[in-house]
Amino acid sequence: MDTADVIVIGGGTGGYSTALRAAALGLQVVLVERDKVGGTCLHRGCIPSKAMLHAAELVDGIAEARDRWGVKATVDAVDWSALVATRDDIVARNHRGVGAHLTRAGVRVIEGSARLTGPRSVRVEGVHGEPGVRDLCARRGLVLATGSRPRTLPGLEPDGRRVVTSDDALFAPGLPASVLVLGGGAIGVEYASFHRSLGAEVTLVEAADRIVPLEDAEVSRHLARGLKKRGIDVRAGARLLDAEVLGDGVRARVRTARGETLTVEAERLLVAVGRVPVTDGLDVAAAGLVTDARGFVEPARWDRLETAVPGVHVVGDLLPPPSLGLAHASFAEGLLVAETLAGVASAPVDYTAVPRVTYSSPQTAAVGLSEAEARARGHEVETGTMPLTAVAKGMVHGQGGMVKVVTETGGRVLGVHLVGPHVSEMIAGSQLIVGWDAEPSDVARHVHPHPTLSEAIGEVFLTLAGRGLHQQ
Fold first, then answer.
1. Is 450 a residue of the active site?
2. What residues are paired with 265 via a beta bridge?
3. Of 183, 226, 218, which is closest to residue 203 (Cα–Cα)?
4. Residue 258 is inside which H or E element, if any?
5. Do β-strands 268-271 and 261-266 pair in parallel, antiparallel, or remain unpaired?
6. 383, 398, 400, 435: least buried by Cβ within 10 Å?
7. Which residues pair with 234 in a beta bridge?
């Protein structure tokens, strides 16, 4: 039986960050991955989807140049094969980069399917290029980082062409003329935005009473307004009744928020109704573990992400809330677990201070508590808002949007919420504001550059500190 200090099962963002940090701390690490290191984020999620969204942004920019700025430019067509080739090149280069990092760090990567045989032992089957099985034993700890897959709906089995999930939407053939997107969370909104930018007729259906329901209500309203302005048919508070796959598309019946029945016909139906943890074939019971009703593995100690079985840790999408199912959260989880296993003091992950971004057009970005969440936790709340069009750079962009800050009355900042162009690049500073328990007066003394979108954030904090120049 092969031995190592740490065995990591799963080579996605949570798994490979654990492996890299543990190796940097002098531990001998084996990482087992049955597909490709990088996981969903690199190969089917974050990276390829943002590459495609960048292409969509370029198309939108050409339309804006023509219609708003007098630049006589047109889009003759989108060369799907060229777009895909660029996307795949970006993914491939990142994949090689992750592999090179692991090699330089001395992490031993084994390609195969892992099955637990005890709290510290693993059997790897189907090892790439080798017959038989390989048995491994961890001296210090075992880390489960097996990720998640898209949730599907009964009677709507994905076929990769007419009915697709978020994992395979980018790889479906060609560009559809019309798309019905089920699910108005971040993933559904991003795909709705992408397809609309490339010319598709898009219907977006969300069962909750508003899209991106985990975000602040004002952000949801502004985002819905922006998507509708772009021609997306946004249907919040609506539910799918049934759907039928036809020869050339899908016909679905939707119950609207008003109780009416709407028939939607589209070339493609994209199911984006959440994700479920992956434990298939892992045999967690062999290690003394159990999964909850949703398939998650609950830590006994969140400060170490350690399960009830000592030495067995969990990172990434296998964790239940308050973990966020976000790649950058899993990086932090990997660092925590690696440092714990190495005996290095490490602060627990503060999930409230982890930013959330929706990369649609317009974008949303947030960190901390929404107004409703803050009130539900018993805080006396004060809020400050400003439309982005109140600053010159916001007028230049012309997409609308806003800044909203939630604070304790007379106290610290609880949340910052943004919607508008490029706000994904503005949220990192707000992470420090929330994470360091800053008060509006702490932020107000720092000068934001002019003219930028970020000065709207500065102006809101000036107003909350009683120093605003443009108070309503």
1. yes
2. 251
3. 183
4. none
5. unpaired
6. 398
7. 204
What tokens were used for 403? 């800044």
Residue 276, pLDDT above cutoff 70: yes
Q: How many CA atoms lie within 13 A of 436 on its CB side?
A: 11
Please tell me the distance from the alpha carbon of residue 201 to that of residue 76, in angstroms, as a whole number.
Answer: 18
| Token digits of residue 376 | 């539900």
Total Cβ atoms within 10 A of residue 280? 10
Dihedrals φ, ψ of 146, to 5°?
A: -85, -5
Cis peptide before 48 (omega within 30 of 0): no
Residue 275 and residue 149 in contact, taking contact as beta carbons nearer than 8 Å: yes
Q: What are phi and psi of 163, to 5 degrees?
A: -120, 120
Q: Do residues 297 and 318 lie in contact, with contact meaning Cβ atoms separated by under 8 Å?
A: yes
Among 151, 119, 116, 156, residue whose Cα is nearest residue 135: 116
- Of 43, 313, 417, 450, the catalytic one is 450
What confidence score (pLDDT) does residue 171 get? 87
Output the pLDDT for position 350: 96
Read off the pLDDT band of 130 (50, 70, 90).
Answer: low
DSSP secondary structure of 304-352 = TTB-SSTTEEE-GGGSPTTS---HHHHHHHHHHHHHHHTT---PPP-GG
d(CA 459, CA 472) in angstroms, rounded, equals 12
**Paired tokens of 211:** 């899209």
| pLDDT at site 468 | 84
Give Cβ neighbours of residue 421 (< 8 Å, ≥ 6 apart): 361, 362, 363, 388, 397, 399, 401, 453
- Report the C-alpha dihedral over residues 419, 424, 429, 431, rounded to 10 degrees: 80
